[in-house]
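Hey, can you fold this one?
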Amino acid sequence: MIIDKAMNTNKPTSNFFGNVGKVAIALTVLAAGMVFTNPPRDKYLTYASGVLETEFKNTVRNDSRVPKALSGVAETLLTSQRGSIEHLLDNTTERQNLGIVSIYTTQLGKKSYQTVGAFGNFVTLPPSSENAQK
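Sure. Predicted structure:
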């Protein structure tokens, strides 16, 4: 009787290092994508002025002490002064560019607003008061 010997006599090896290499490549591609989509300061200023404008408009609309006629004028004035608002935000904002993300800290009055910019988008964290940071 003839017994054939198995063609592959190598023992199976662990695939651990092959998987680590794939994960490392994936993380490198992800980090490179984050670097290229890290939003610049001018995009933040446009975003922040839009958020500030929306918040102010909502406040004026919902505040019963502001007459309807004045709320329309205030909204028009605010829209026309968007460049001035961006300039104000530019002067009161500090950017920490971490390469893959940016952290913007804006001081308005006694409040400090932090916004994280990544992948071309922004996420604003709840504001903190000046006393809470000290």
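The first strand starts at residue 93 and ends at 97. Let me know if you want another pass with a different chain boundary.
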